[in-house]
Amino acid sequence: MIDFKDMKSIMITGGAGFIGSHVVRLFVNKYPDYRIINVDKLTYAGNLENLRDIENCPNYRFVKADICDFDTIYALMQEEQVTGVIHLAAESHVDRSIKDPFTFARTNVMGTLSMLQAAKLYWETRENKYEGCRFYHISTDEVYGALELTHPEGIDSPFTTTASSALHHHAYGEKFFTEDLKYMPHSPYSASKASSDHFVRAFHDTYGMPTIVTNCSNNYGPYQFPEKLIPLFINNIRHRKPLPVYGKGENVRDWLYVEDHARAIDLIFHKGQVAETYNIGGFNEWKNIDIIKVVIATVDRILGREEGADMDLITYVTDRAGHDMRYAIDSRKLQRELGWEPSLQFEEGIERTVRWYLDHQEWMDRITSGEYERYYEDMYKNR
Ligand code: NAD
Ligand code: TYD
């Protein structure tokens, strides 16, 4: 375990994005003695509005920078004497990766390599070198490829947690993603994340850098960019716009509430074993079409519409190219070794999520109008 008395400055990359903003908020509020440096390029997916509640905290600094810009990252690590890195910055949307794989290779592969090299070279200048340091890389379960849907009607899930869903507790096959599985990425997104994971492990194995990798399932919750299934559909239902369901809607994803992921990241950053991999999941598999129906029913109920009134918005469209059939995480290693499990039942998580988007229509409107990209431009222009 790391000696955290030396841990002063933590660089969190991608902190203006969906998961990153929850991690930054958690660390800034929970650890007043740490200095949290949020490094984000503010791509289309980065939005500083996600952090407005903590932006003036004395232990927080935002720096607009590209993780591929090695010189800037190295200089910042030196200036802030960074000893911890939590690396979330990435291009994260599969559909975009199908249209523009180069951007994914640049940011996810070269950007991660630039972060690793900057941390390595800076840490090697320290008197104690890697002692008290940690490079934590956040990755995805999509690197493992796709599981088969051997039980389309669902079987009882073999896993139970204190938060197991009362509404639905199904698995759609016998196999699950475990940490020892071979990588078999299919999309340019997952291929780029797989490659970045390999580089992180290579830096441990070659240079002895204290690294950790975690692979998490699909997250949902507040502040997710509305190109992803759940926020996109909540917004479309609100405006009674069509809901584009890819293929037959039979694909299965394992959903985890984003704050539970942030809690896992906190725990693993502090207590995880160097060089280890941990899978993080919700024990919560859903077919897309079933989750869409739950979202429609929840939005309709909260908006006072007749329940199910918007089911006719479901519109089946051409399937995503290479669409992975099923993702399902076995996160018992994390449960067993560090005592983590999801805290929230899916019913509660989805209720909170739908309410949050409906209550934050202005946040959504500023994104859909593109206004958010100009929002802080002047404020950070010269930093
Ligand atoms: P996101 O797209 O919402 O946010 C990504 C953030 O990274 C944005 O703020 C963006 O501005 C920033 N960024 C992009 N390119 C950058 C660059 N070159 N330099 C600096 N900053 C840059 O993504 P997310 O959904 O919050 O995902 C965060 C991380 O978690 C990613 O690494 C992703 O692969 C991983 N992950 C996501 C999920 C999920 O369900 N969303 C699941 C498992 C793992
Ligand atoms: P997404 O939120 O893009 O996450 P990922 O592709 O990383 O799992 O998509 C979740 C699932 O929903 C995935 O199976 C694709 C499907 N989907 C649709 O059917 N329609 C949509 O408009 C979107 C964005 C996704």
Keywords:
about 375 residues; alpha/beta; Rossmann fold; 7-stranded parallel β-sheet; 3-stranded mixed β-sheet; 13 helices; about 40% helix; binds nicotinamide-adenine-dinucleotide; binds thymidine-5'-diphosphate
Question: What would your notes on this structure say?
Answer:
By secondary structure, the protein is an alpha/beta fold. It has a domain at 7-223 and 255-282 and 322-344: 3-Layer(aba) Sandwich (Rossmann fold). The chain is built from 13 helices and 14 strands. A seven-stranded parallel sheet has the order 3-2-1-4-5-8-12, with helices on both faces. Helix 1 (18-30) packs across helix 7, helix 2 packs parallel to helix 4 and helix 4 (101-125) packs parallel to helix 5. The longest helix is centred in the first third of the chain and has 25 residues, at 101-125. The mean pLDDT is 94. Nicotinamide-adenine-dinucleotide binds next to helix 1, helix 4, strand 5 and strand 9.
Topology:
Layout: E1 9-13, H1 18-30, E2 35-40, E3 60-64, H2 70-80, E4 82-87, H3 94-99, H4 101-125, E5 134-140, E6 155-156, E7 170-171, H5 188-207, E8 211-216, E9 218-220, H6 229-238, E10 243-246, E11 252-257, H7 258-271, E12 277-280, E13 285-287, H8 288-302, E14 314-317, H9 332-338, H10 346-359, H11 361-368, H12 372-375, H13 377-380
Parallel strand pairs: 1-2, 1-4, 2-3, 4-5, 5-8, 8-12, 9-11, 10-14
Antiparallel strand pairs: 6-7, 11-13
